[in-house]
Amino acid sequence: MINIGINGFGRIGKCILLQLLENKNFNICCLNSPNLNISEIEDYLTYDSVHHHNIKFKISISEDTIRINDHNIRYFSDYDVKNINWSEYGCEYIIDATGSYLTTKKCQDHNAKYVIMSSPSKDDTPTFIYGSNSELYNGEKIISGSSCTTNCLAPVLKLLNDAYEIENCVFTTIHASTSSQYVHDIVNKKSRINRSLLNNIIPHTTGASSSVTCVLPFIKDKINGTSVRVPVSDVSLLDLNITFKNKDITLDDIKNIFCSHPLYKIVYDVCTKSLVSSDFITTTTPSILDLHASIDMGNGNFKLMLWYDNEWSYSSQLIRLVEHMFNHNNTIKDKYYFENIEMTDKRVVCRLDLNVPTINGEITDDFRITSSIPTIKSILSKNPEYLILTSHFGRPKGKDEKNSLQFLIPILEKYLDQKVHFLPDGIHLKTLYTLQQNPKGIYLLENLRFHNTETDYEKFDSINNTMNIYNCLGDVFICDAFGCLHRKHMSIYGIKYFDKPYGYGHLIKQEIDSIDLLLNSNKKILSIIGGNKINDKLPIINSLRKFKNSKVFVAGGLARQYDEINDNVIIMKDGYGNVHLTEEPVYIDDVKNSHYFAYDIGQNSLNELFDLMKDVDIIFWNGSLGVIENEIYRSGSMQLIHYLETLDEKTIIIGGGETASLFKNKNSHIYISTGGGALLEYLQNKILYGKNLIGLEIYI
Predict the structure, then answer these.
(1) Strand 59-61's sheet: what is its strand order?
(2) Of the residues 15, 30, 91, 148, which is catalytic?
C-alpha cells in the first residue's frame, strides 16, 4: 500500500485524487488545499465541467478529516507546507500539484520521504516519465514528472527512435486552455495569453522541447516545438512532424509498433475512428495516435497526430510514476545477492537460522540446517580466506550452556563433509585472536543471543565493543536467516552500519521468489489457514481473502473463533474433539455452535477442502488442521499432506512452523518455507503496505 499525500487541489490535484480513490494500491493520507474550505470538498469532487467521472463514493467530513470510501484523509488548508508534518500522518510520497514547488531546495520544505513535482523543474531536479525513462529511476527522493505535453511526446519519441532512429522532428501542441488564461482581454500583459480564451487561437510557448531532452538526451539538437492555445476546456493534440533514417517504413509499421508494445493501452494507443477532442476526455493513455489524421509523406517523413487529455492522462502518468518509484524502492536489488559479491580470499561471516527444534538435546527436525547448506557450499566455492557461520539458538538472556551451538558441529560436518571449528568465546577478543592464529577453514560462532548487543544494539552507542568485534570478524557479511528477518538484530540489520560489502543468500532468495508467486499471480489461489491463535492469524486471513481469484479455508481452532462473513472465506464445519485434550474424542457436526473444542478437522470439511483444491492453481498452507502434538488429532493434517503430495501439477507453498514439521518427504512441487512467523509478517506487510520485512530493507 502506497501512502500518499497531495499538495494542491486544482485541476491536476483533483484528477489525481479521483483516480486514486479507485486504485487499491494507494492509501490517501493527506490533502492540502489552501483555496478550498473542507465543507466544499464533496461538491468540488462530485461536479466538474469537464470530467463527468462515473465514480461512486461515500464521503463524510469532520473538523479536519475527510473520509472517502476506505480513505481517511487529514485535510489541511495551509499556504506554507513547512507547517505540515506529512510524515506524522503516514505520508511517504507527496505529489505536489501546486506548480509552486519547482526546485529541489523548495521541495525539501515538504516533510516527506519522496516528492514528485507535477511540472518541469526550474533547476536540475531529475525528471522521469513513465514509459520513457522511468527504468532509470534509482531511488531519487525528489523528482519531476515533467509536463502533460512531454508525457505525450517523450514516450512516442522513445518508441520510434528505438525502432527506426529519428533524424529530426518539429512539433506543435494544439493545447486546450488552462487556468492561466482569461475569459476577457486584460491589460498590462506582455504575453498573448492576456487575450480572451473564448474566441481566439493564441500562439504560445512550450517548454516541452527542453523538457524532453532531459528525459531523452539522444533527441537534443534534433527537436524544436511550439504551442497554440485553442478555446476548448480539455484535451490537446500534438502535431508531430518527424523524419527517420529508415526511409522504407510506413504508417502501418508505426501503428504496429504502438499496438505490439507491452504498454499498449497504458501509455500507447491507436485511434482508428474519426473522433474529435471531446471524445478523448477522461482517457488515461497519454499518447494516442490518430491514424486517419496522420500522414505518411514518404521517404521516412511523417506527420503524426497524437491526442492526450492534458489533465486526466497526465494525472494517470504521475500515478504510474509513483507506483514505479514505490516498486523500485521496495524491491530487493540483485547487487546484494551473494553470488554477485566478490569473496575470494575474503573473511566471510554468514548469519544463518540454525534454531532447530530439539527434545532432550536431540534434533527432531534438521530442515533449517539442510536449507542452509546450498548457501554455505556456494560461499566455499568462492574460495574465501575463512567462513564463520553465526546463528542464535533459543532466547537466552546471557550465556547459558544448555543453549550452546556446539552440538551442531557434527551435523554440519556431516552435510558439508568438512571439518568445522567451534568458536566457544563468541563475539569476543579471544575469538579474533583464534582466527588470527588459524585463518583458514569453516567456523561456527557460539550463540549470538549470549550477547545482549545482538538484540539491543541500538541501545548502545556506535562504539559499542561487542558490535565492533563482530564487525572485525569479517570483510563480507551475508545473511541467509529468512526466519529471523522480522527482527531488527545486529547480525541481520546492523550489518549495514559496518561499511563493508553485505548481501543475502540463496535461501532468502528462494523464499521470496516462492512467496511472490502468491503476491504476483493472476491464477486461482487457495489459502489454508489453521492453528489456534486468532489474533495472530486474523490479519493474514483478511489480507489473503483480498487477492483476486482467491479463497481462504479456515481450519483448526480458528474455525470456532473466526466470526466474519466473507464470500470467499470457507470455515471448517465439522471436527473431532472434546472439552479437554485428554478426554476421548467425539464427533462434532457443528464446530461453530458446539460447547466442545474441535481438535481436528472432520471428514466432511476435509472432503470439502479437497474439492476446493481441485479448482485452483496455487495452494498456500499455514497452520495445522488440528492439535498435531497429540497423535489422535494429527489425522486430518496428515491426510492433507498425503493429498498434496499427489497434486504435482499445482504450485504448493507450505508456510513454515509446525506445518512444515509434518513433511518428511521432499517433493519438487511443494515448497516448504523455513519462515513461520517471518513468512506471515512478510505476506501481511506486502499485501497491506507493500513493505518488506525489516531485515530485507537493507537490500533495497
Answers:
(1) 59-61, 65-68, 71-76, 26-32, 2-7, 93-96, 114-117, 142-144
(2) 148
